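[User]
Um, tokens okay?
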Amino acid sequence: MKRVLVTGGAGFIGSHLVDRLLSDGFQVTVLDNFSTGRPQNLAHLKSNPNLKFYQADVADFEKILPYFKGQDWVLHLAALAAVVPSMERPLDYYRANVTGTVSVLEASRCCGVKRFVYAASASCYGLAEQFPTPESAPIQPQHPYAWSKYAGESAVMHWNQIYGLPAVSLRFFNVYGPRASTSGIYGAVFGVFLAQKLAGKPFTVVGDGRQTRDFAFVSDVVDAMVMAAASDLNKEIMNVGSGETCSVKRLVELLGGDIVYIPKRPGEPDCSFADTSRIHRQLGWKPKVSFEKGVGIMLQNIDSWRDAPVWDESSIAEATKDWFKYLGQERPAAGTRVR
């Protein structure tokens, strides 16, 4: 029986990955410090004898090293996400996403891990100009979150080159599904919209709503990670997306509700659209869940957002003022400490 270690396994994508690995008969070890993950995401697995959970910070190399002994695969998802928080706390993002990744890589190398799969981010493309966007597109991160995830990917490829650690990096586009974040306004638009729908509030649509996103359902993303781990691919970087686009207006139509339009935020792309030809060619992977089906599943699970904060036009304006400050023309004054 293969042994798999999942970092960030109590998070949104990580917990779905743990579900899949256990159902496939793997022994699974999860590391998570609950900075973004939630205990309830794994609560239904508490009695599973093939699951071991340890609360640990992946940047603490000495603490996590023993957990890597005897592991066949390491699937690394632990990270801090979201844009504006990364601009407010760049050192935290560096520690979690860069130091944390290097720590996990070195622990994997020291313990002879056979396969390493990294959850990268398509945010590294920044304001892409080529659609669908291939892996060869220019790297132009627009904020510390995007840069830190790309720096982590660079470390993965370096450990592969220098130390021979078999590794694959998957650049996720807009992942959605049950257990997605229920707090904050900087993550997937679904969380904001579902909370607004439950509260009977209008949907706050940025700009004119014609901007498009490549929404990938979480089970398809999990399939890609498992297939990459089970393959013989090495030093490959591949996009993971639906290979299609959907406008925010179309999402609102499927959810059903009124709209309030709010100003477009600087530095936010008008389109995200993955070129998935490489992963299809290399792994035979392709998404199975249509956007319409995925939205239906989200609506079936809408009660998960019952306790989520409900954002309206004024509260979003207040919360996003730093977005305009950092990604617009204004910069922190000289001598101002950015945590």
In short: The first helix runs from residue 12 to 23.
